[in-house]
Amino acid sequence: xxxxxxxxxxxRTTQAGSTPLITYYDETRGERxxxxxxxxxxxxxxxxxxxxxxxxxxxxxxVRLTLAAAHPxxxxxxxxxxxxxxxxxxxxxxxxxxxxxxVIGPETPxxxxxxxxxxxxxPLGLGFSTPLPAGVLDYGVEVRTFPDSFTGPQPAPxxxxxxxxxxxxxxxxxxxxxxxxxxxxxITPQPPWQVVRTAxxxxxxxxxxxxxxxxxxxxxxxxxxxxxxxxxxx
Length: 234
Fold this sequence. Notes:
Layout: H1 5-16, E1 20-26, E2 31-36, H2 37-54, E3 62-65, H3 67-70, H4 75-86, E4 90-92, E5 101-104, E6 115-118, E7 136-138, H5 139-142, E8 160-164, E9 167-170, H6 171-177, E10 184-187, H7 192-206, E11 209-214, H8 218-228
Parallel strand pairs: 1-11, 3-4, 3-5, 4-8, 5-6, 6-7, 10-11
Antiparallel strand pairs: 1-2, 8-9
Helix pairs in contact: 1-7, 2-4
């Protein structure tokens, strides 16, 4: 039977849930955030709950991930991708088709349509320190009210999962696109789909992990690679 990404994440969490899945560095802000498989899966399930129970998305609805345009490698961006798939939704990055919800970062002016969720990108996933405009949900506040486990139906392999960057991928295509890696790999900023594939899909499929680094010099990358025991990038 063809698997889907959310089942693969569940398997990765069951087999190696306590080991790091994503370690995120933002050198411009002096941040390091490490998420184990269990921690990442909890964020995904909480976010899927927000999508289905608060925003009331339906299977096949589109989640416009504007957040990924400015922050394709941020760990919260990767959570949103996995959560949209778990909720049986389609990730888009632009204006392709009508969206049920738009997810934005702290620097994006909120619009009025569709429903908008704003992410502060706080290293602990907290909300904004100042009130948001009326009608805009504060992700860091809202997501914490939802359970750590999401029990909704799994997507079908044929369900559409990604429409962006000139690609249209089904749930089965997402799994097929990642060869799987058991290594601890260093990832630097890339276009959104490449980041999703190398920093999320392949580590989940292979049981490995990703060290995602933003804003580092080449020398600093070498230091991080040594500290995290990953191969120095070429």
